[in-house]
Specification:
Helices cover about 40% and strands about 25% of the residues. By secondary structure, it is α+β, with helices and mostly antiparallel strands. The chain folds into 2 domains: about 5-150, Sandwich (Jelly Rolls); about 155-225, Arc Repressor Mutant, subunit A (Orthogonal Bundle). Helix 5 packs across helix 6. The chain is globular, with a radius of gyration of 18 Å.
Length: about 230
């Protein structure tokens, strides 16, 4: 369980910052960031922002996992990204000036820092490395999102599940994948009952190991083969 006192973490000692877009800040910039951010403990299933709301700033994940999703006409979620430690969430909508077209919510107890919009934009104006990093991140996201949509649109459910498990392995490693079956189904884009049946098939084939809701991949090569990567 996440230590709730962990919310007092400083930017200079944050282990996740080194792997984030803020990893290239110099000591003075880190001090300035520390003066302009807040850091808070979030319970599981707590909202960071809602679809249709206007961006107020960016969220930096120090510890925990966050799902970024969109709701369909019937209220069913389609999870389009799962963010982990070191990732920043919510900065993309700031550049368009439009409201969020997605929502974000914690998947587990999390420690997340917040930088207000004006402070973040000022940091971008004065830090070329940060600005270039964001441009690169936006470009990579566009490519990744196109691949994700193509895979989810053109593959069977079995193939999509294999592809999703490969992505989830990258999010959760070195720990087992720890995602509810409903959220996993919403990530794959299928019914929960179908997902449970396919996970049983993968288990019987020796591809995965399951303990309650935690899932360990035993045969990554077979998953890659099924996914058609």
């Amino acid at each position: 369980m996440l230590d709730k006192s962990h919310k007092h973490v400083t930017c200079s000692t944050c282990m996740s910052r080194s792997s984030s877009l803020l990893g290239g800040l110099c000591s003075d910039e880190v001090t300035n960031l520390e003066d302009h951010k807040t850091c808070n403990y979030y319970k599981k299933s707590q909202s960071l922002f809602l679809e249709g709301s206007f961006p107020r700033g960016v969220f930096c994940i120090n510890q925990g996992k966050v799902k970024v999703f969109k709701r369909g006409d019937e209220g069913k979620e389609q999870i389009i990204h799962i963010a982990k430690e070191g990732e920043m969430v919510g900065f993309r909508a700031m550049f368009s000036g439009d409201p969020y077209n997605v929502a974000a919510e914690t998947l587990e107890e999390s420690n997340i820092c917040f930088i207000a919009k004006d402070d973040f934009l000022n940091m971008m104006d004065t830090n070329v490395t940060l600005r270039n990093g964001i441009i690169k991140e936006l470009s990579k996201e566009l490519s990744d999102r196109a691949s994700f949509i193509t895979n989810m649109a053109q593959k069977s459910v079995r193939e999509r599940l294999a592809f999703a498990l490969i992505l989830l392995k990258g999010v959760y490693e070195p720990e087992p994948i720890n995602l509810s079956r409903e959220d996993m189904a919403n990530f794959v884009g299928t019914a929960t009952e179908t997902l449970i049946r396919l996970l049983k098939d993968f288990k019987e084939e020796g591809i995965i190991e399951v303990h309650t809701r935690k899932l360990t991949i035993l045969n990554l090569d077979k998953l890659v083969s099924i996914a058609g990567k």
